[in-house]
Amino acid sequence: MQSYVGVGVTPGRVVGPVRIMPPALSAPPSGERLPAADGSGTTPAEAAAASLKAAAAQVKAELQERAGRATGDGKAVLEATALMSTDPMLIKAAVKLINAGSSAQRAIWDAGNDVAAMLISLGGYMAERSHDVLDVRSRIVAALRGVPAPVIPDADVPFILVAEDLAPADTATLDPTKVIALVTAGGGPQSHTAIIARNLGLPAVVAAAGVLELADDDVVYVDGAGGTITTDPGEPELAAAAKWREQASLLSAFDGAGQLADGTRLDLLANVGGAKDAVAAAAANAQGVGLLRTEFCFLGHDTEPGHDEQVAAYKGVFDAFPGKKVVVRTLDAGADKPLPFLTDSTEPNPALGVRGYRTDTTSPGVLARQLAAIADAAGQASADVWVMAPMISTAAEAADFAALCGAAGLKTPGVMVEVPSAALTSRHLLDRVEFVSLGTNDLTQYAMAADRQLGPLATLNDPWQPAVLTLVQATVDGAAAQAAAAGNGAACKPVGVCGEAAADPALAVVLAGLGVSSLSMTARAIPAVSTVLRSVTPELARRLATRAVAAASATEARELVRAELPVLAELGL
Ligand code: PEP
Ligand code: MG
């Protein structure tokens, strides 16, 4: 028996076989050309086209073989992907590039991009197929290189996915009926792997050094709350997994009213990445959307999405929440979410670079056009649409953003508080906008100067860090100071939280005690957060918040709060 220790990001205890995600493929060098003709009978272009077709046929045969063993939806998906791998449009486009001198790998790479962009521009069902095209493209390049394809592996039985890290785009091919837990060697508690795991409600451990030495079919026990992975599980681990299944079934569905024990309201909203998530969040009774990550609607786009495509994407979300609040965040491109039409991939420090709102200086016009599309979509729906900008550092930026919103006819501008300077000057930001929303993921990485994607920095990247809680406190205090200065008994403007901290039921209690006005999280986390909040009085929440802020470390803060919330252990959280 061997144990690996990482950072637990989603609770849950499961036992199952491991599947290792092969490492990412590097893009073939851009402009990679065919070798010169060697005078033999076959031209380099003919040879490259033949090897491409052979690789595509190999991918198709593998997928068909797996489809033959699968059942239900899984079978249909595999059959459709198998057909896609020899799709005439894709192969013809690649052969055309080969005939123009591209190498086979580069040709299929570029052709895959072009076909995916075309499908995305068609929107709806066709846009969803773009992931399949990129998936088969990777498989064909891997076959040409003779290496395993960097795609979520498959198995006939539910499995525990072990990877270096996952990108937002990987979710598209992750089948939650097959994957029962996520374990990564890299990533931190605010990384996108963690966000994906919470969205899917999967137990997950990140930053677990050494886990990549596990092999396919090794059976392990994963404790998502404790952050451990144990090989050769025995009776106690099997019993713990069975108990978790029992406890998970005890959490009742959310009834649509976030509140503390005395009835004090605290709205529980959903974080969504598009219409599909929004429909699921509405079905889970979320009270609205606290964060629409619009960049998630356009990941993989090489060019700025057109007006109609944007309107359709936003309207799909608004329609899921008629009459309810939907907070749209403008494109937050950069760092781990690059959008080629906005960000420069050669920046030395992307997290500190031109990302989020800052891209308005390097790509002027994109933001104004996005706001126009949001306003158009809002005009066609009944949702109460609020708009906020990511990565705001100064009151001047907040004022400029509010002016752009006003010009687009959007009445409720706000900004995210993700940078310590914004937390410390929230009073001035709120003089210029109508609300702020704390992005604790980035606020933590910037407060602690620790890249949220790096596994070795995971313990620094912990929103329980008292420094981060102090910045949350400063933001709420700034809102109170702004209201007091405004006079006439003005109410505090809303200070929400939409970072992953809101999805941790114990931390949600602390945030409530610090005085935030709403919590936004993946819809899957709402029942647990709601259940725990309803068990605490405002006095207890305030007392725990004061003690957490005053703690000497993240561990001390977490432990002292958890010790006073026995409901967490009862629910296995
Ligand atoms: C955050 O930084 O907390 C946030 C919600 O934004 P994202 O995770 O998309 O960077
Ligand atoms: Mg952020």
Describe the structure.
The chain folds into three domains: 3-22 and 151-237, Glucose Oxidase, domain 1; 44-145, Enzyme I, Chain A, domain 2, CATH 1.10.274; 267-571, TIM Barrel (Alpha-Beta Barrel). It is 45% helix and 13% strand. It has helices spanning 44-69, 72-85, 88-99, 104-122, 124-145, 192-200, 235-248, 275-283, 307-320, 359-362, 366-379, 395-408, 420-424, 426-432, 440-448, 466-486, 505-514, 526-533, 538-550, 554-563, 566-570; strands at 3-5, 7-10, 13-20, 159-163, 179-184, 204-206, 219-223, 228-231, 267-272, 288-293, 325-329, 384-389, 413-417, 435-438, 495-497, 518-521. It has an eight-stranded mixed beta sheet. Helix 2 packs across helix 5 (124-145), helix 8 packs parallel to helix 9 and helix 9 packs across helix 11. Bound molecules: phosphoenolpyruvate and magnesium ion (MG). The site of phosphoenolpyruvate has 10 residues, from strand 10 and helix 15.
